[in-house]
Amino acid sequence: MATESGPTVEDGVRELLLLMPRIVGRAKRTPPPPELDDVALAPRHLSLLAYLLFDGPMTVNELAGRLEIAPTTASLMIGDLSRQGVLERTEDPDDRRRTIVSIHADKRPAVDAWLARGAKAWQEALSPLSPSERALVINTLKVYEQYGSRGD
């Protein structure tokens, strides 16, 4: 039952349990642009590409840290996307032992177009909210995701 300030916890859980499959389905149905048709992209690549698109080139270890995965896992993903021409790896001019990863210039517009759909949807959803309401939504989704990955 809803109150003036919003649904009860139980009603909120019910609504979200019904909504989440539609959200996940929408994300899965967002096809890569035609320029990336020949690339084997999976949902796990979205976050990696988003970090590189929004934050610019970075090292394998920086990407692994942001993705919260092991550096070897990040390296495998980067190697796969590099072989497919989506990413490029260059030597760090300050430390030749480090590799800098970036989106290949030829693929950057296609990656941007692919991620833009989701960005526009989130912009539409978050724009009417106050900064504290946006923080609440983001933190709530993070807690939900972290709980789900614990394996309880």
Automatic annotation (TrEMBL):
It comes from the Bacteria. GO terms for molecular function: DNA-binding transcription factor activity. Residues 13-146 form the HTH marR-type domain. InterPro entries: HTH_MarR-typ, MarR/SlyA-like, WH-like_DNA-bd_sf, WH_DNA-bd_sf. Gene3D superfamilies: Winged helix-like DNA-binding domain superfamily/Winged helix DNA-binding domain (1.10.10.10). GO terms for biological process: response to stress. PANTHER family: MARR-FAMILY TRANSCRIPTIONAL REGULATOR (PTHR33164:SF57), TRANSCRIPTIONAL REGULATOR, MARR FAMILY (PTHR33164). This is Winged helix-turn-helix transcriptional regulator.
